[in-house]
Amino acid sequence: MANRKYLLAALLTICCYLAGAQTVTFRQVDSTSLAQYNAGNWRALIVDGNSAINSGIDYPVLRLRIAYAQFMSSNYHGALAQYNQVLKSDSYNQTAHYFSYLCNKYLDNNPAASYHASFIDTAVINREHIASFGLLIAGLETGVKIPSNAQRGMGSYTRASLGNRLGWRLQADQSLAYYNQSITSTTPTNGTTPQITPTNTTFANTQFEYYAKLGYSINCRLTLLGAYHYLNNSFGDVNFQNHVAMAGIKYAAPFFTLQGDANVSSITGARVTQFNVQLSTYPLGNLNFYTASRLSVQTGDIKQNIFTQLLGFKLSKQLWLEASGSFGAMNNYLEADALYVYSAIDVSQWKAGSTAFFALGQHAVLCLNYTFEQKLDYYLNNNYKQNSITGGLIWKF
């Protein structure tokens, strides 16, 4: 009986020793993560590093190593999550700010990139040629709209744009655009009289536009948005001075962004308020695959709900594709922070399309878009199809 008692005690001691041997210590985590970092074993470093944090071993150097492993794995959102934790304990950490700048730059989040750049040492700023004032992006797009309606001529659209950094926290985007299409009015089948021009005449529908948007970074996650869009519309001899104002806020978190904004417009005599909420997700932590879901609610002289869904993915090292669809009548509808205004005489009932982005080196991106629209003839009240093809070039400084 006594021997059995001693044997049980010995077994218990051995079990406790083995259990203790499985407990990870700070020294083990530090040496293992350093070895994995030096060897470039990024996957193991991410897995083992996160496991150590979950077990209670958490310190800035470990976070920096995991973040760099995520960065080297092109998981920029995952890296930002780690760098944000480092900055909570050391708000001026140069490594965290520099790589956060790069991560946001690769995610096309210029406001957050600029915010982090404001904390980077001057020597690094000069070495990387990062300026607090100057051009960020320039673009040119032009396209045609081809309707299947004999009473509608082929439309053309051209827009030139510039994006400037006006300090570390302020960015301004501006563009000029011009649209032109010939319209032939037709006697309505219901006997009503058109409101803009006499029937059975052909007139030019032209539109000149100026657009300006400001983005101010409150911090690395919150950006205040404001925009103004002026449109000079002409329907033959009838001219309209149209105005659109937008105010919103955008929240950027690891793996998703959320934006809400309100738009007030006066377009061709109609006063409309449009509220938008958009959720964008980045499941892989980069632009290899992303989604955007947007709900727009119009009130005022026009009441309508529009839903838009977008999917984007990387096909190759230089090629990205986006596919999107919008559902709901787009009457004086505002899209892309009020950059695009759907104020045509014929209202689009729904649209779907795709865009290809092809990188031409480090700075230039070539864009090609195709869009199909179901439109409603203003005079005859019947549907017709419209195909649009747009090409563009974007230059990133």
Automatic annotation (TrEMBL):
Protein origin, superkingdom: Bacteria
Name of the protein this chain belongs to: Uncharacterized protein
InterPro entries: TPR-like_helical_dom_sf
Signal peptide: 1-21
Organism: Mucilaginibacter calamicampi
Entries under SUPFAM superfamilies matching the protein: TPR-like
UniProt KW Signal keyword: yes
Keywords of this entry: Signal
